[in-house]
Specification:
The protein has 236 residues and is of the alpha/beta class. It has 9 helices and 9 strands. Strands 3-2-1-4-5-6-9 form a 7-stranded parallel β-sheet, sandwiched between helices. Helix 3 runs parallel beside helix 4. Bound molecules: NADP nicotinamide-adenine-dinucleotide phosphate (NAP).
């Protein structure tokens, strides 16, 4: 099996690359960081591939020579919080939406034609999409777009199975900078386990850790006005 993973130079994507490669897949590990890519390229079954996922030309050039793929996991992403919503920073908003959502469109244009019939597409969103959270206007909006994109693709892609991933908190360089508690956070290894098992079963949605995501899913049925009152209590 050939699995291409974006955001494979760190965190969840790096663990996915290592675990798929250990299981015998040929992994095409993508990212921008050449040093991390060189290190990944030393692993058996991992080929490194450098591109900026926000640049369609770079993606096309870097992936042109690859053969047909069994699995594409679009995982690259970044998080920046909005500290002052009253003085909205449109450049931060653009950065986050471009990295998390528009990049998926570029990757889909370049890579969907390479996925074999019967193959799989995995889009990594976030459990932030279950409920509006403080300071998450950019990150949450970008990930809400990813979730919608995945669900809508699952309707129209007849010969490719789509899996949407909604992680809770995972300890990675992305969350190391968080200055608030991260309830029920799991390691990147554990996150990769959850994803790999569910992708193997061709699940439509993966969410973890289950206790955390189930609580969010239950809170989602509250009237919005009540949730907004509770969420205001979460602000610093
Ligand atoms: N950690 C969590 O708690 C959590 C929770 C929910 C969802 N997620 C999602 O899970 C995914 C992985 O997150 P993580 O926690 O593993 O983050 P991470 O450790 O910071 O890794 C992010 C990865 O994305 C890549 N990336 C970022 N911008 C890129 C760009 N413009 N072009 C190409 N690659 C780019 C980075 O590679 P380079 O720097 O080499 O480009 C890196 O490999 C993200 O989509 C994130 O939103 C994470």
């Amino acid at each position: 099996m050939i699995t291409l993973i974006t955001g494979a130079t760190s965190g969840i994507g790096e663990q996915l690359a290592k675990q798929y490669a250990s299981a015998g897949d040929t992994v095409i590990a993508c990212g921008r960081n050449q040093e991390k890519l060189n290190a990944l390229g030393q692993f058996d079954n991992i080929q490194a591939c450098q591109f900026d996922a926000t640049d369609i030309q770079q993606i096309r050039l870097a992936t042109a020579a690859y053969p047909d793929l069994d699995r594409v996991i679009l995982n690259a992403g970044n998080c920046e919080y909005v500290d002052d919503a009253r003085n909205f920073d449109s450049s931060l908003f653009t950065r986050v939406v471009t990295t998390n959502l528009l990049s998926m469109g570029y990757c889909l244009e370049a890579l969907l034609p390479k996925i074999k019939p019967g193959g799989q597409l995995v889009l990594v969103s976030s459990s932030v999409t279950y409920l509006p959270l403080p300071r998450s206007q950019a990150y949450g909006a970008s990930k809400a777009g990813v979730s919608y994109l995945a669900k809508s693709l699952a309707i129209d892609l007849n010969d490719i199975d789509v899996t949407l991933v909604h992680p809770g908190f995972v300890k990675t360089p992305l969350t190391d900078k968080n200055d608030f508690p991260m309830p029920m956070a799991v390691t990147a290894e554990k996150a990769a386990d959850y994803i790999i098992k569910s992708v193997a079963k061709r699940r439509k949605e993966v969410h973890f850790p289950y206790r955390f995501t189930l609580i969010l899913k239950c809170l989602r049925i509250l009237p919005l006005s009540l949730w907004l009152k509770l969420a205001k209590g979460l602000t610093r």
